[in-house]
Amino acid sequence: MTQEESSAAAQSGKIARTGSQALAMRSAALVRRGLRDLARDSNWLMRKVFHGPVSHAALSPDGQVCTLTPQVRYGAQSLTLFDVERCVPTLTLSLSHDADSAAGPARFAWSSDARYLLGAWGSQAGALQLFDLQAKMLVGAFGKFSRVPSDIAWSPTGAFAASACGGENSSLDLWRIQPPIDESIAAPVHQLLRPEWLDLQSTDGETGEAGAFTGYGRTVFSPDEKVIATVAEIGGEWADDLIAFLDAATLRKKSVFEAQGRVTDLAWSNDGNRLVYCSAGQAYGIDPLSAECTSLPFGGEQCAWHPHLPICLFFSSWLRSSAKGRLFLVDMNKISLFDECPAEGILDLRWSLDGSKAYAITNEGLAYVYEPELL
Amino acid sequence: MTRKSIDTEATQTPAPLSAKANKGPLKPEEAELLRKREEQKSLENELTERELRATNLRAELGAFERRYLHLVGLRYAELDEYKAQLAERLAAEQPQNERAQQAAREARARASETKSGAGEKAEHEPRAFKASPEMKRLYRDVAKRIHPDLTSDRDDRTTRQQLMARANEAYERGDEPALEKILTEYESSPEAFHGEGPGAELIRVIRRISQVRGRLAEIEAESQALLRSDLYQLRLRVEEAAQDGRDVLKEMVEKTEEQIAEAKRRLAEGMR
């Protein structure tokens, strides 16, 4: 406090403050940081964000989680957003009186800036609902599906979204997203039904039997938005799914790889030169150009690559020596694990936009925040 | 100096109303004034003690904060500077990656903010605050004499507020001579006197009691706010750990220095 301020305070009849008060204001962030550092003994923070169990949850890059929760009092369901850091609900949208929907199929996807949310669930399975979370409103609905899409993916810039569907009307649809939603979005800009390249790829080498294409699964845009990697799911207990690299502008095939077993997740590297996938509990890496596929020396069911570092976060529900799961980080250049945390029931993984944190959420509403001082 | 101020009488010896008892029974207003003066005196003593405790708490927290910033804050600033340099190098290596560019900008902003919060490096490590019994006695004397809530005169109140602020600063610095000087300065200043008689005096005493009560409530609120502050919680953690023989600030310093060393190593060897 300056002498003038001190004098003014005296004139106003208030007890003049001493210098230390102003210092406390300036250092508040550093004091909070110290308290926070003291409160943890690892880079992982665990927070109970909501009460589960839920079957669907999607994390945003700004630390929010979206899930369907039953509203006990009204017998309805609601779409609720929670702030992972503060463990409080930030937005609740009451949905239809469809009490079973919270446990039924659902799919959500956040845009990379966390402003928009695309979702399909229960009674709203027939269309994609687009929410503007800044304006806190439902922008509109588009698409026509016979079931909840198995995956929804935003392009990095948010200009496009892809929806992957399975079942009888399997299709991969590419949508141009330009709110406000009007008739122009009524149809996808491109649609891939059962592709012709599937017959060539899905024949079992040993038995000669063709695997049954059951639809599209996990789908991700490359960082430069030029390529979409999507999983063509093949039915059968021992069948191997296919991973197709498609031109994002036309959905035409660039290349197709046969994976080992059921593919559960895909993630592009930060430079777009590699794709990591998890299938049958094992992690693999593919170089889309050289067609080289390598088995990584660890298990994995879900993966999320850092936005600008060669680091990938994995979740595996099996440890070699026990049935406990774990979250772990791998330096993908050295293929070395450098941090891990026991975890179970993970539904989603996500890096923050700036890459300073990673989030994971469980079906019981427990969030794991990986926040190292130095990454 | 002959004391002649009525307005400052609250902090001095009240006129001996009881002496009148020898000459006959007290008038009702005189008896009331006597009771009010006793109440005032009791409240003033309480105010002095509370003011001392609040000032002690502020001083202790201020000293802890300076020590924390000197030991840990400056190292956080150093770490954030290296983190910003790492992020900037990464952004330079990936000019097309907008996220890397944004991360670099944010890391630089964070480093500036941390540097500003940590302040400049002091030549010596700031000491913990510990007031001597003599300082406490002196502070009590000053508070009894010059506390702004012990006067109802507007000009005098302003003077006292300024002096009290100086006294608080001097106490926090442990500056005994400055406290003595403040006391002398005030005692040698000319004071006005105002209306005479038990009625006028009673009104003044009642008003002073009200002021003191108001200030007591303020002190309580200020103290509660300090006790709820992050700074107090941090200090509490440090003190609790100290009772178990742990130096938490030292541990934080060591941990942050490890991170600084790692950041330096990465900067030296280039991005992995």
Please tally the helical runs of chain A, counting DSSP H or I stretches of 4 or more residues: 4
The helix content of chain A is under 10%
Please compute the radius of gyration of chain A using only Cα atoms: 24 Å
Number of helices of chain B: 8
DSSP strand (E) fraction of chain A?
Answer: 35-45%
Looking at the chains present, what oligomeric state does this protein adopt? heterodimer
By helix and strand content of chain A, what is the structural category?
A: mainly beta
Q: Biggest sheet of chain A, in brief?
A: 4 strands, antiparallel
DSSP, total strands of chain A:
28
Strand content of chain B: under 5%
What Rg of chain B, in angstroms, do the CA atoms define? 28 Å
Determine the N-to-C terminus distance of chain B.
78 Å
Kindly report the spatial arrangement of strands forming the biggest sheet of chain A: 1-28-27-26
Contiguous runs where pLDDT drops below 50 for at least 5 residues of chain B = 1-13
**Outline type of chain B:** elongated
Helix content of chain B: over 70%
**What string gives the helices and strands of chain B in order?**
HHHHHHHH
User: What is the arithmetic mean of pLDDT of chain A?
Assistant: 83
Structural description of this entry:
The complex is a heterodimer of chains A (375) and B (272). Chain A is mainly beta and 375 residues long. Chain A is 9% helix and 44% strand. Chain A has helices at 3-11, 19-26, 28-38, 197-201; strands at residues 44-48, 57-59, 64-71, 76-83, 88-94, 106-110, 116-121, 128-132, 137-142, 151-154, 160-165, 171-176, 190-192, 213-221, 227-234, 242-247, 253-258, 263-268, 275-279, 282-287, 292-299, 302-305, 311-316, 326-331, 336-342, 346-351, 358-362, 366-370. A four-stranded antiparallel beta sheet of chain A has the order 1-28-27-26, with no helix packed on it. The two termini of chain A are 38 Å apart. Mean pLDDT of chain A is 83; it is low at 1-23 and 203-208. Chain B is mostly helical. Helices cover 74% and strands 0% of the residues of chain B. Chain B has helices at 28-93, 98-118, 133-146, 154-173, 176-187, 198-228, 230-243, 248-269. Chains A and B meet through helix 1, helix 2 and helix 3 of A and helix 1, helix 2, helix 4, helix 7 and helix 8 of B.
